[in-house]
Amino acid sequence: MSVPPAGIADLHLRDSGTGAPLLLLHGLGGDHTVWNGPAGSLAGSFRVLAPDLRGHGRSPTPAGSTFGFNELEEDLLALLDRLGLPSVHLAGASAGGFLALRLALDQPHRVRSLMLLSTAAHTDGHTRSVVQHWTEVYRDQGFEAYVRRLLKDLYYAEFLEAHLELLDQAMVTLQDRDLRAAVQWGAAVKSFDVRPRLGRLAVRTLVLHGMEDRVIDASHARVLRQAIRGAELKLFPYAGHLLPVERPEEVAQMIRGWATAAEGARAAGSGAVPEGERGV
């Protein structure tokens, strides 16, 4: 029996600031709070929209959800339509970057500029094994061991040592979180691959990646920069997977500069990537 398509999720949204709209997407198992650091600063220049994706944070899971990218895209498009926004600057971290890439490829007219953090054009064997290991640790060793493994993989070691309060916070936050949505989206993410389409992406794209990322190797950032016409790349030394948490001020500065430049080009009537432009 075929499963009927799930309905649109009414996404919980943090909406702050004024100016050109900037949509921030979190990753697998997270919520909008991963953007708390950069969002406060960015709200001084943009209208910052940080939703909880379906089944995450305070957003519901419609009956029949498979967490395929088509469902997640439709949720976001419905959100933008409800807000009366024909287009936005778009930033996505980790699996939120997968979703941002899909949206920019499928709906380029809805995306003014694109910022990809700690993400890739496909899910490789390394990333699949990391996510699978989280599942196995939770199953075999219990919740506390799972949280410790999760944080060791997500953060640069020295950052985590300097911010041990993150472990206590995660123990409290994740204890009450329903992880079924993360498990389902994780299953959908395993087959993610948009590499054949990257050459057709005509949105101004900035790629940000931590050089010590244990979840998605930094080599993926270089692939994105080479494959996307006009893309620019910024690598962060001594940084792990969660750049918005580890480097909030630098991330805010990079996003602000990129989106502001794209907004200026759009106002001048040149929103597309110029022919032959190549970032370094």
Tell me the layout of helices and strands.
Elements: E1 13-16, E2 21-25, H1 36-42, E3 47-51, H2 69-83, E4 88-93, H3 95-106, E5 111-117, H4 125-141, H5 143-154, H6 157-162, H7 165-175, H8 180-189, E6 205-210, H9 219-227, E7 232-236, H10 243-246, H11 248-267
Parallel strand pairs: 2-3, 2-4, 4-5, 5-6, 6-7
Antiparallel strand pairs: 1-3
Helix pairs in contact: 1-11, 4-5, 5-7
Describe the structure.
There is one protein chain. The chain is an alpha/beta fold and about 280 residues long. It has helices at about 35-40, 70-85, 95-105, 125-140, 145-155, 155-160, 165-175, 180-190, 220-225, 245, 250-265; strands at about 15, 20-25, 45-50, 90-95, 110-115, 205-210, 230-235. The chain has one domain (about 15-265): Alpha/Beta hydrolase fold, catalytic domain (Rossmann fold), CATH 3.40.50. The chain has a seven-stranded mixed sheet, with helices on both faces. Helix 1 crosses helix 11 (about 250-265), helix 4 packs antiparallel against helix 5 and helix 5 (about 145-155) packs across helix 7 (about 165-175).
How many beta strands in the DSSP annotation? Answer: 7
Structural category is alpha/beta
**How far apart are the termini?**
50 Å
Portion in helices = 40-55%
Number of domains: 1
Number of helices: 11
Labels describing this entry:
280 residues, alpha/beta, Rossmann fold, globular
Structure, briefly:
With 280 residues, the chain is α/β, with parallel strands linked by helices. The protein contains 11 helices and 7 strands.
